[in-house]
Specification:
- The protein is α+β, with helices and mostly antiparallel strands and about 190 residues long.
- The protein has a domain at about 90-185: Alpha-Beta Plaits.
- It contains 10 helices and 6 strands; from the N terminus they run αααααααββαββαββα.
- The chain is elongated.
- The model is unreliable at about 1-10, about 15-55 and about 70-75 (pLDDT under 50).
- InterPro entries: Ion_tolerance_CutA, N-reg_PII-like_a/b, N-reg_PII/ATP_PRibTrfase_C.
- One of its GO terms (molecular function) is copper ion binding.
- Pfam families: CutA1 (PF03091).
- Keywords: Chloroplast, Plastid, Transit peptide.
Length: about 190
């Protein structure tokens, strides 16, 4: 049966595209619904772009396995949907060792520049610095804070970090557990 599915799949879609782009959800659909039931309505562009949202069976998955109502049941939100939260970010900062990480993390939380800082030991960074490839053992700080505090946080890191050019990279938080995001707001300064 697997051989039949593979030969049908490669006759419609090149195997390299199928192997690289078909998400696990797509594989689940193929196995549970049968590839022949999906072939008539799948457009090649959905596989080419790698966008699972454009596949025709996504609405079926949502109706069977979840919906917007189930998101509320698990108490999750989108950031713009609640007045009890603020636009929030996750910030990555690398430090040279455990002691530096602990000191910087504690000062960030003490100053209410972040609600929480996770310290992840044992990372290895490979980068180019002043024309040479460097490899260093470091610790990663994962900082959860308000978007409005990014500039103050960046200045705090630069003023309390031993690196000449410390890493400060921010990523948006687009949703999550409403109680956690409310706590993040209440644990940081305005």
């Amino acid at each position: 049966m697997a051989t039949t599915l593979c030969s049908k799949a490669t006759s419609i879609i090149p195997s390299s595209v199928l192997r690289r782009r078909l998400p696990l959800v797509g594989a689940f659909c193929v196995l549970s619904l049968g590839f022949s039931n999906l072939c008539s309505s799948i457009s090649y562009s959905a596989f080419k772009t790698g966008c699972a949202q454009s596949l025709p069976f996504v609405p079926l998955l949502r109706s069977k396995f979840g919906s917007r109502a189930s998101e509320k049941r698990f108490n999750t939100i989108r950031m713009e949907a609640s007045s009890n939260t603020v636009p929030s970010i996750v910030v990555y900062v690398t430090v040279p060792n455990k002691e530096a990480g602990k000191k910087l993390a504690e000062s960030i939380v003490k100053e209410k520049l972040a609600a929480c800082v996770n310290r992840v030991p044992g990372i290895e960074s490979v980068y180019e610095w002043k024309g040479e490839i460097q490899t260093d053992s470091e610790e990663l700080l994962i900082i959860k804070t308000r978007q409005s505090l990014l500039e103050a946080l960046t200045e705090h890191v630069k003023g309390n970090h031993e690196y000449e050019v410390p890493e400060v990279i921010a990523l948006p938080i687009t949703g999550g557990n409403i109680q956690y995001l409310e706590w993040l707001k209440n644990s940081t300064r305005d």
